[in-house]
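quick q for whoever's on today - can somebody do inverse folding on this one?? i tried earlier but teh output was garbage lol. tokens:
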């Protein structure tokens, strides 16, 4: 569920309860579209996350920390200048819109106390965080919107702030029964669900469906065909939801697919239409949002940061594929080389029997067991010896071409496998440390330039492999990049540990620690094989072959690219990657 007006109201209530009267102590901008505040008040310190991310805009209390850039971005500097040390006076939600305004009292350059407005607009890809002065003049915004980007509404320093267009929707908190029923029956060709979220602000399609469910009506029912009794039932359900919002009787819940840990949706009211789903209650809206958005938000930022590397890798993969097509054509061109050699030898054997000036010579093919006759094309202007030499020359050229081609094919195939493994590593990357390691790997392999570390910059975090524990207690490790795969297999693992990898498919190295026994349970093997298949290019396939052997049987050839190994005496398991099984394992 997106942050609709009801969820926004729950957040506002929680923020007002915790932050009113507090002072802004620290301001950081760890991401281009994200601000983090530290607020002190009444002996308590609160951390606030405010995100104008296009996919996951939100605001809530947070406990997680992020690394901050060495130099603060411009918008962060503007916030520090105008509201650092400021006192939070009020937090409000105008007209039940997905907009939150934080009123902050702070001193200006002259030392006079003024009120600034920090405005978060939660509007999908148009989400923004804007700072205005007491007169409503924009001081700056995290996303500047010029006239070229939007002819409807400019968001630039010095411009007057105006609320986003309301689309003529009504505030549901002040809905009147007579107006509701009158408007309901005027909706030509509209469904009940559409009527609710298109007529009133802050009502999402899912909440509109929930209101219909409470009224025991189908969301797809026609408005015009709704009876008076049904209309009154719909308003009663609508009014009941709004009463709960006014009373701030929120119940933050995440709903899961049945018998699964996969998240389906969340809500801050009791979603009666989800009665059959697995559900978990959270003590606050902030904790719910932190849990719901953490992985999704992180995945978005990792994907954005990996974009350039992914494009580079895909470009090189396309180059390898085109090179392979040329190599296949070349191999086809030299496929007749042995025939050319044979023709040259047959001409040499019959050199005195070939008349001058003929274009074709027929002779017995003594290389053929049946001794069939063969026609050999000739150039009439050349002698028999010269024609024979022509065939030998073609053969020798093709032989040299084939020898070079086999080397080039091997190099190209190795490079293609390596690049596909890097692409798989980018899919498995979960944080900046993983991306940094992949970039280092690409630099070492000559695909990107090495980046000299900035003076005074902190040493980048070392990425770590994933660590799982099988159902029966075996430690299982999964590499997320080729450098991690090398580290895990060649230096971390013991010779008696069990090594797993998808058969001839780019993927992660997986290690089961056997504590010197050289054996593991069938259950641990199956769970480790599932991890190997899940963290591979065959993630969405079925019956994926996974080879396993003792670590001592795995070797790295001299000069091989990162993550590339050879192994002997392996066995093979066939598994279908199962995300739910993977998520059910204990992760350390």
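ok took a stab at it. sequence:
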């Amino acid at each position: 569920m997106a942050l609709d007006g009801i969820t926004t109201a729950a957040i506002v209530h929680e923020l007002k309860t915790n932050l009113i009267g507090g002072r802004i102590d620290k301001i950081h901008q760890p991401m281009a579209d994200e601000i983090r505040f530290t607020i002190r008040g009444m002996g308590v310190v609160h951390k606030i996350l405010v995100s104008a991310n296009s996919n996951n805009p939100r605001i809530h209390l947070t406990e997680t920390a992020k690394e901050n850039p060495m130099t603060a971005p411009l918008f962060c500097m503007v916030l520090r200048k105008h509201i650092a040390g400021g006192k939070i006076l009020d937090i409000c939600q105008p007209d039940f819109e997905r907009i939150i305004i934080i009123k902050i009292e702070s001193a200006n350059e002259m030392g006079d106390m003024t009120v600034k407005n920090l405005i978060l607009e939660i509007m999908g890809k148009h989400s923004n965080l804007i700072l205005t002065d007491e007169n409503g003049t924009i001081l700056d915004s995290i996303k500047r919107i010029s006239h070229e980007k939007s002819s409807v509404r400019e968001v630039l320093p010095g411009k007057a702030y105006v609320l986003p267009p309301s689309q003529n929707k009504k505030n549901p908190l002040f809905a009147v029964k007579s107006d509701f029923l009158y408007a309901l029956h005027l909706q030509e060709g509209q469904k009940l669900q559409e009527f609710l979220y298109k007529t009133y602000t802050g009502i999402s399609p899912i909440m509109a469906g929930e209101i219909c469910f409470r009224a025991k009506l189908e969301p797809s029912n026609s408005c015009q065909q709704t009876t008076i009794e049904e209309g009154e039932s719909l308003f009663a359900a609508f009014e009941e939801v709004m009463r709960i919002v006014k009373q701030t009787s929120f119940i933050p819940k995440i709903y899961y697919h049945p018998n699964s840990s996969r998240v389906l949706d969340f809500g801050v009211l009791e979603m009666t239409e989800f009665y059959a789903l697995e559900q978990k209650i959270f003590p606050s809206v902030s904790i719910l949002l932190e849990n719901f958005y953490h992985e999704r938000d992180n995945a978005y930022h990792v994907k954005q940061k990996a974009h350039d590397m992914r494009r580079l890798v895909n470009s090189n993969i396309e180059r390898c594929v085109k090179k392979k097509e040329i190599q296949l054509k070349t191999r086809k061109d030299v496929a007749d080389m042995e025939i050319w050699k044979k023709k040259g030898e047959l001409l040499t054997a019959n050199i005195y029997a070939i008349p001058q000036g003929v274009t074709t010579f027929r002779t017995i093919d003594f290389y053929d067991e049946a001794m069939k006759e063969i026609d050999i094309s000739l150039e009439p202007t050349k002698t028999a010896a010269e024609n024979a030499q022509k065939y030998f020359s073609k053969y020798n050229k093709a032989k040299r071409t084939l020898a070079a081609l086999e080397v080039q094919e091997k190099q190209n195939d190795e490079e293609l496998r390596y690049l596909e493994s890097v692409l798989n590593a980018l899919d498995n990357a979960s944080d900046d440390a993983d991306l940094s390691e992949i970039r280092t790997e690409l630099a070492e392999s000559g695909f990107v330039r090495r980046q000299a570390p900035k003076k005074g910059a902190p040493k980048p975090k070392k990425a770590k492999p994933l660590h799982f524990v099988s159902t029966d207690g075996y430690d299982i490790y999964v590499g997320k990049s080729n450098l991690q795969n090398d580290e895990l297999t060649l230096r971390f693992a013991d010779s008696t540990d069990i090594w797993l990898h998808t058969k001839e498919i780019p993927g992660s190295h997986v290690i089961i620690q056997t504590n010197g026994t050289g054996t593991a349970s069938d259950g641990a093997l199956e769970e480790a094989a599932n991890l190997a298949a899940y963290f591979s290019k065959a993630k969405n396939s079925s019956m994926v072959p996974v080879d396993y052997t003792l670590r001592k049987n795995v070797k790295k050839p001299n000069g091989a690219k990162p993550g590339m190994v050879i192994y002997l005496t392996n066995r093979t398991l066939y598994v279908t990657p199962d995300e739910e099984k993977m998520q059910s394992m204990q992760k350390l």
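fwiw Residues 466-587 form one domain. also The mean pLDDT is 91. so keep that in mind when u check it
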